[in-house]
């Protein structure tokens, strides 16, 4: 026998509430594990910096530093004016090209107007 719309709505809401309850429970269960992992990452990063190493390994795997870079435009009008005035057409994509922005920054030692460059060092751990 098919469910009526009212029964389906009731069932849907009960299932949605159960899913939310399970998600909350899992977040709570995972919190202590995630906290210990963050502490281990911080200690491994401190070790890598103190020893001036890029990676360290053991029988279980390797921890290594990796630099992630993002290039975003804060003020498109200023950036586009810079591109046109300096004929840096290689910067144009649907976004500012990260590699071209880094090259120009390296060459000129000056920021590109309206562009924010964010470099973040992160720790990665992979199984052996």
Can you walk me through this structure?
This protein is α+β, with helices and mostly antiparallel strands. It folds into 2 domains: 1-53; 63-128, no CATH class. Helix content is 54%, strand content 23%. The chain is built from 3 helices and 3 strands. It has helices at residues 5-51, 76-86, 98-108, and strands at residues 55-58, 61-73, 115-127. A 3-stranded antiparallel β-sheet has the order 1-2-3. A hairpin with a 2-residue loop joins strand 1 (55-58) and strand 2. The radius of gyration is 25 Å and the shape is flat.
Oligomer: single chain
Largest sheet: 3 strands, antiparallel
Structural class, please?
A: alpha+beta
Indicate the low-confidence ranges by residue numbers: none
Helix content: 40-55%
Short account of what is shown:
The protein is α+β, with helices and mostly antiparallel strands and 128 residues long.
What's the structural blueprint in terms of helices and strands?
Layout: H1 5-51, E1 55-58, E2 61-73, H2 76-86, H3 98-108, E3 115-127
Protein traits:
3 strands, three-stranded antiparallel beta sheet, 128 residues, 3 helices, alpha+beta
């Amino acid at each position: 026998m098919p469910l009526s719309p009212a029964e389906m709505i009731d069932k849907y809401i009960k299932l949605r509430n159960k899913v939310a309850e399970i998600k909350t429970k899992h977040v709570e269960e995972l919190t202590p594990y995630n906290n210990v992992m963050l502490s281990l990452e911080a200690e491994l990063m401190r070790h890598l910096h103190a020893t001036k190493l890029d990676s360290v390994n053991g029988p279980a795997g390797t921890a290594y530093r990796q630099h992630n870079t993002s290039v975003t435009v804060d003020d498109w009008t200023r950036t586009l004016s810079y591109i046109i005035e300096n004929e840096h057409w290689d910067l144009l994509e649907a976004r500012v090209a990260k590699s071209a922005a880094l090259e120009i920054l390296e060459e000129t030692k000056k920021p590109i107007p309206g562009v924010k460059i964010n470099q973040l060092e992160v720790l990665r751990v992979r199984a052996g």
